[in-house]
Amino acid sequence: MNATAECATPAAVAAVAASSEDLFKPLVTSAADVVSAWASLLNLELALAQRSLRWLLIGALVVPLAALSAFLSLSALLVAGAHMYTDSWPLALLLGAGVQMLAFAILLDQLQRWAHDLTLPQSRAALVHAMKCMS
């Protein structure tokens, strides 16, 4: 077997090299097509992400303004209703301010609860318990 491999003519070696080159050419072309398609997909996804980020930022500005205007409108309606009921502007304004302060206090309490949840109290307690059990 070694004798035939050593006796191979340069033409036979060139033919084998050319055939192996013909085998790899479609593989290289296909790999280049895959990389090109992946780069195109990545480019399109980045454009989509950029557009979504732009709309997210616009929404982050518009939603709080809409919520604030709705809250102020409801407060104005409350004050107007209180004025119709009590026939006293100072009392109606005090009632409106009181409702706003109550809403503010409820919001602060809820924010404190959410901030407490961000510290993952149950996970920390479970980790402390596990560390105590291990020692």
Short description:
With 135 residues, the chain is mostly helical. It contains four helices and no strands. It has one domain (2-134).
Helix-strand sequence: HHHH
Mean pLDDT: 85
Cα end-to-end separation: 68 Å
Helicity level: over 70%
Radius of gyration over all CA atoms, rounded: 37 Å
Keywords:
single chain, 135 residues, mainly alpha, elongated
Please describe what this structure looks like.
The protein has 135 residues and is mostly helical. It has one domain. The protein contains 4 helices and no strands. It has helices at residues 2-6, 10-86, 89-118, 121-134. Helix 2 packs antiparallel against helix 3 (89-118). The longest helix has 77 residues, at 10-86. It is elongated and about 115 Å long. The two termini are 68 Å apart. The model has no long low-confidence stretch (mean pLDDT 85).
